[in-house]
Amino acid sequence: MRILLVEDEDELRAQLLAALRGAGYAVDAAAEGKEGFFLGSEVPFDLAVVDLGLPGMSGLEIIGGWREAGVAFPVLILTARGRWQDKVEGLGLGADDYLVKPFHMEELLARIKALLRRAAGRARPRLQFGPVELDTAAQSVSLNGQAVELTAHEYKVLEYLALHAGEVISKTDLAEHIYDQDFDCDSNVIEVFIARLRKKLDPEGSLSPIETLRGRGYRFILAKDA
């Protein structure tokens, strides 16, 4: 999952980058409002974390501008403003949640996970697809109740495909959502991840969980349990 962080406080921005990347997210950061607005308008992020008090362009202006332009990814507000009116205004402009500074990093990460699940239409952290289960909170996978050992990037690819089950996802889209903006990723690397996932999730060749659509991308085709 790829996150945009717009925060002008250098120390806090560095802490947030470390925490988000440590949690397995690809993160792009901006220290100024106009840059953040541009990135969010041009890059297909899965979520944005936006401070309200920014130089150049306020967080409220950024959120309002994105929503007017049809940018739909979830937005989590960070603010030092404790007034309820500021929270109401931010939510009214299209933000999805907010945290008041100072905050606990664990709460921020929990709220981000919840927003990403909600955006994908999933209410619970555990996703069951027949014999395959993903625990998005623990970032773990099991097959018929047995743990499946995945690398960090293999998990990221599988989680993104599973959260968009039934949709065709191109190699480019996968690369953009699992790597930071400045990472140069050969699309063949994605093919390697897909091949490894197929072997680990379908060792007997009976499930075929990931479909390849030539020239278009991949699709996770296991049905989600009710």
Helix and strand topology:
Blueprint (H helix, E strand, L loop, with lengths): L1 E5 L3 H13 L3 E5 L2 H10 L4 E5 L7 H10 L6 E5 L4 H9 L4 E4 L4 H15 L6 E4 L2 E4 L4 E4 L2 E3 L3 H12 L7 H8 L8 H15 L8 E4 L3 E4 L6
Helix pairs in contact: 2-3, 6-8
Description:
The chain has helices at residues 10-22, 33-42, 59-68, 84-92, 105-119, 152-163, 171-178, 187-201; strands at residues 2-6, 26-30, 47-51, 75-79, 97-100, 126-129, 132-135, 140-143, 146-148, 210-213, 217-220. Helices cover 41% and strands 21% of the residues. With 226 residues, it is of the alpha/beta class. It is built from eight helices and eleven strands. It is elongated and about 55 Å long. Strands 2-1-3-4-5 form a five-stranded parallel β-sheet, with helices on both faces. The mean pLDDT is 90.
Quick structural gist:
The chain is an alpha/beta fold.
Give the proportion of residues in helices: 40-55%
Tertiary shape: elongated
CATH class assignment of the largest domain? Alpha Beta
Largest sheet: number of strands, sense, barrel closure = 5 strands, parallel
Q: Strand order of the main beta sheet, please? A: 2-1-3-4-5
Topology pattern, helix = H, strand = E: EHEHEHEHEHEEEEHHHEE
How many structural domains are formed by the residues?
2
Strand content range? 15-25%
Q: pLDDT average, as an integer?
A: 90
Counted by DSSP, the helix tally is 8
Number of strands: 11
CATH fold-level name of the largest domain: Rossmann fold
Q: Low-confidence stretches at least 5 residues in length (pLDDT < 50)?
A: none
CATH A-level architecture of the largest domain? 3-Layer(aba) Sandwich
Q: Radius of gyration, Cα only, in angstroms?
A: 18 Å
Measure the end-to-end span. 24 Å
